[in-house]
Each structure stands twice: as structure tokens, then as C-alpha cells.
Amino acid sequence: MRYVIIRDDDTNALTPVECLERLYRPFLERGLPVNLAAIPEVSTRATMIDGRREGFLLAQNLGESPTVPIGANRELVEYLLANRGYHIVQHGCHHDYLEFDCPAQTEAIRRLEQGTARILEAGFPHPKTFVAPYDKLSRSSLQAVAERFRVLSTGWFELRRLPYSWWPGYLKKKWRGTPHWQMGSTLLLSHPGCLLSYHRSFSTALQGIVQCLQSNHVTVLVTHWWEYFRTGQPDEPFIDFLHETLRHIAKRPDVKVISFDQIASGEIPLN
Predict the structure, then answer these.
(1) pLDDT tens digits for 248-257?
(2) Which residue in 170, 162, 164, 123 sits closest to 145, CA to CA?
(3) Would residue 271 count as lying in a domain?
(4) What pTM was estimated for this model as a whole?
(5) Which of 9, 83, 135, 192 lies in the 20 to 30 Å Cα band around 155?
(6) Given CA atoms 73, 93, 259, 264 in this order, what sign does their dihedral have?
């Protein structure tokens, strides 16, 4: 059996419920888990590297507050809690640009704990999995994450950024050619890039997804809900492709969709 984890990034207090419902109702109806990497207290001034406003800030009027905790949107919280197919993982704290590429461990710890507090205040279970904005973490942030989370999901690992005690394990992982590895009690998952993205042609993306499913025991598929509504209107072909991907996965008897929690609990082995 092979396993796939759907990781959708950037759900936050300003995310319209109807966007998630449109994308993931077919998944929920089939009983397939959807892992939402949720921003605990979103920055309303968050920008990308080029200075443009982050795509997940769809609201036209962002108000005066510099940040908004996810619990402030009770409609969203109640919707997510009512649909048990959604699994909340922690995505940074404010989602400021590269906020966990910080060198000071004390600052990384403060951001991690503040983010977790906001998730708990909203009424969600304690998150077991962490996702950094832009998949970028400093050495001190990696150490702080490992002390607080069972699972780290990221795009890749760089030797120069790892805690020195992790180097032997990382080199062993590279020698084995495995995408996922473990240090102590922390499970470290990498993913093959954002295959479910409007930047990719659908045929190339599906080919890449099929190849990953064939070659990996566990595949993390990353997407971003706001990309499907980036113009203010639903991108119907892109939404159709997401659902086509679902149909492809669902019809394969050798593939099962799982949550990060199932990896965290040891129910599903990494490799």
C-alpha cells in the first residue's frame, strides 16, 4: 500500500468558508482527510518577496489590525470543526516573509508557542505537525520545532541549516535516497514541490503526481486554496483538475489518503 497526504497551505482568519467547501467537499464526501496548514494569527500586511500582498489575503478591506487570530472567524472555525475530515496543522505564526528563517532560538520559540496558543484558543486540538512559511527554517528554528512537534513537513532539507547532531542522520537519508527521515522522536517529511499549482500545466502535474505515487511509500501533495480563486473568481479548469486528481487517487486500490496525525501516531510508517 502507498499513502498520500493532501496538504493545503494558508487557511487563515480571512479565508472564505465557501472556498474550502468548493474545493474539498468531494474529498469530505469520500471520507478522505484534508490537512490544512493554518496560519494561527495572520498578518494583514504579509507580502511576498517582490512586495506584493500575499495571495491568501483575499479580503479587500483588511481593517486596521496588523494581525487577526484564526479564532476571530467563528464561521470558519465552526465549519472546520463540524467537518472532521479537516485536520489542522500549524503553519508558522503570522506568515511574515521567511519568519522562521530567524537565527535566534528564543524568537523562534516565541513564535511557535504564540501560534500554538492561537490554534488552541480557537478550539482546535493541539497541533502535532508544523509547516514553516515558504518551507524555510533556520538551524535554531529546526531545533525548536523538533522539541515541540512530532512531525515537520517541508520541501527539502539543507545540511548547512541542520543542527549538527542531525548531520549523520541526514547523510544516511541521502545515501538511502529516501524523502523522509527521523531524528529522535521527530518525523521529517519532504515533498516534491507544489505539483498542484496553477503555475504548472495540468498534464505535467498529473504525470508528476503519478510518478511520485509510484516511487514513494508516502507522498505529500501540496497546494494552496487561494490559487484556485486568485482573480476573485473560481478558476474552474484548475478546480476540475484538483477533483480529477482526487478521482485518480480514489480509484487506485494501492493508494490511501491519510492525515499527518496518522504518521505522527505511528499508524503509518514513513518509508
Answers:
(1) 998 899 999 9
(2) 162
(3) no
(4) 0.95
(5) 83
(6) negative
